[in-house]
Amino acid sequence: MRRQLNTSYVTTEGAWLKKDGANVVMEVEGDERARLPIHMLASVVCFGRVMISPPLLGFCAEEGVSVAYLSMHGRFLARVEGPVAGNVLLRREQYRVSDDLARAVPIVRNVVAGKIYNQRAVLSRALRDYCDAFDDDVRLALERAQKRLTIISRRLLSESEIDVLRGLEGEAAQSYFGVFQHLIRVDDPAFRFGGRSRRPPLDAVNAVVSFLYTLITHDCRSALETVGLDPAVGFLHRDRPGRPGLALDLIEELRAVLGDRLALSMVNRKQLNKKDFRFLDNCACLMTDQSRKAILVAYQERKRDEILHPFLDEKIPLGMVPFVLSATPIATPTASRALRGRVD
What we know:
Layout: E1 6-10, E2 16-20, E3 23-28, E4 31-37, E5 41-47, E6 51-52, H1 54-62, E7 66-70, E8 76-80, H2 88-99, H3 101-130, H4 136-155, H5 162-178, H6 204-227, H7 245-252, H8 255-268, E9 277-279, E10 285-287, H9 289-304, E11 306-309, E12 314-317, H10 321-327, H11 333-343
Helix pairs in contact: 3-4, 3-5, 3-8, 3-11, 4-5, 6-7, 6-8, 6-10, 8-9
C-alpha cells in the first residue's frame, strides 16, 4: 500500500524556501522557521508571495515533489513538476475511452452517482443529528431535497447520454445547495449562505468551500499523475485548455465528504467567525491569513481520519482515497459504489 506523504502549505508572505542537503528549509527575514525532509513530502503549495531557490526547484523535480503556486485567496496560478511519470500506454487508453461514448458513459454515471450519494449522506447526517432542533418547515425541506436526490440517482441508471447525465448532476447540485443554509447552525449573518457563488465568493461559507475545493483538486491532480493518468482529459468535464478535467471528475465524489462537511463543522463549531473574513465593496468575501491557516490545519487533520477499504480489507487514511480512486477501474460500478459506501 502506498504511504501517505505530506503536503507542505506555505502561507507566510515573503517566505524563502531553499535546499539544505535533503531538506526543504523555510526562512522568513533570515530566520529559519521550518525544516522538512524531502522524502516525507508529496508536494509544496505556496500561497501568495513565496520565493523558492532554483536548486530547490530542481531537487523537487528530481524527487517527484510537485510545487504549486496559488494566489493569497487560493486561486490556482501555476504548477512546477518533473518529468511526466506513468505508462504512456495507459494514457493512450484513457484518451480512447474519453472519445468512445459507450465506454465513457459508465464512468460519468459512476462519478455523478458517487457525488449524489455523498450529498445525500450529508443531508441524512443533519437530519439524524439535528432532527429535534429543526422546525417543521426546515425538516420538510431537507427531506424533500433528500428524496429528490434519491430520485435523480435512480434516473442515472436509465440514461445513456453524457449531456443528460451532466444535466442530472446540475439538478442534484441545485437541490443540495438549495437547502445548504439549513445545515449552518450559527446565527451570525456573516455565515448566511445565499447559494453557490464563485469568482469571487459572495459570502464566508462560499469562500471556505471554494478554498477547500481548491485543496482537494490539488490532491486529486497529484494522485492522477502518480498513477500515470492525464489530469487534463476527463469524462464528466469537457476538455478545455488549462482545466484539469479528470481531476475535477475525481473531486466530484469527494466534495461533500472532504469539503462541505469540513466547512460545516468549522462554522458550526465556531472555529471561524466574522473577523476571519474581509468583505469588499464589490460584495466579494475574502479569507484572512488566520482563517486560511486554520482551514489548512483542519484539512490536514481530516485527511488523517481512517476508513476501512472494502477491497484491501484494511484501514487507510482519508487522504489516500484520491490515490485509491485513481488506481481503481472507475468504470466498474461495484468498485466505485463499494468505496463510496465507506467514505462517509
